[in-house]
Amino acid sequence: MARRLLCAASATLLLASAGLAQKWEAGGAAGGGFYRNLAVTNPAGNATAGLGNGPVFGGYVGHHPYRYMSGELRYSFSAASLKVSGNGEEACFKGQAHAVHYDYLFHAGGREARVRPFAAVGGGVKIFRGTGVETAYQNLQNFALLTRTRQVMPLISVGGGTRIALSPRVWLRVEFRDQITPFPKEVVAPAPGARIKGWLHDFVPMAGVGLAW
Question: Other C-beta atoms within 10 Å of 122: how many?
Fold first, then answer.
């Protein structure tokens, strides 16, 4: 019994010391993007414009210099179609979004904790691209035009999640971000006389695995 207790104590100390020594982490994640699109109005009526939901893939490199605070550089890619909907019609156009941002993480537990919930806030840029084939006529073109162009917008990132130790150096992550940007009016361009007001929200739940060292 004493030997088992000694082994268990040694393993616990090893996990704790490994966690305290780890200051870097890198990994990948996958999930989905769910946009809250905006209203577009013209004298004839209303519609909605923005991007469609789709899969999201990304990666990160993090630095953990402090017990309860860390930071990480993140990149994510989503294949999100541009779209306009209204009056029983819809227009879609192939598109992409690339997000690059740096987040500060505020942890509820120290580096030695096996489960570490965290809140995150940061900023960066998001690149919207229309990649479809333009045509002479588009449904709902009196509200907005979906274009084959690119636009870089400032990005605010807020969210949180939980890191769970699978081993002394492998972490499971379950997290959520709200990527907030001004509306990309060059990629989804309001038609003459139409207006789009507000900020675009992309709600991004993700899960992934990271390696710490």
Answer: 19
